[in-house]
Amino acid sequence: MRLIGYYLAEGYIQKDLSSVHFTFASKEQNYIQDTINIIKTLFDIKVTTTNNQDNSTSISIHNKLFANFLYNLVGSGFDKKYIADILFYAKNQKHILIGVFRGDGCTIENGIALSLSNKELIKQLYNIALREKLTPKIRVPKASKLATTQPYILELHYLNDKEFIDLVNKDLDKIKVKEFKSDGSLVGRAINQFWFNNNFFAR
Fold this sequence. Notes:
Blueprint: H1 2-10, E1 11-13, E2 20-25, H2 29-43, E3 48-51, E4 56-61, H3 64-74, H4 85-88, H5 94-104, E5 105-108, E6 111-116, H6 119-131, E7 137-139, E8 152-157, H7 158-168, E9 193-196, E10 199-202
């Protein structure tokens, strides 16, 4: 499932469905190696890596069966990717979120945020977050005059979703809103959406 998240954030498929490619910042070696290990372990196929001049690293898999497999599950194109029903209702969906936040997410002062120009995918990820008992928030910022698409932002607040954000483990030192009691538990929870007794509430 984490591979699906990495692909949604950082992957694309050639139009002829001959190969799959991922592109990470070269400094993200943990995510690069995680992606390679998952592919080799689950599919036992050849993976090649290329260090690019823009300080990015490309992962390439030239395998038509693998390309078709991914295409049928999640599509291709930054504004056309989706999560197929077979994945949308599968187990371990939290790992989809971990992968996509590691790939396209960024750390903000009070948590993590994910910005995509794909409304339907953001809605699917929001619903997965709710099912995983997280407290997501969607923002629709005003698009800049130069923008060709409308961005949609999915946010998670550290004081609400500490355990998940720690699993994403992306630039945690940049998060400023961390308040703890003497016993180590969090205080000052900024909750306006929450789970109680297996039901989700917003206020």
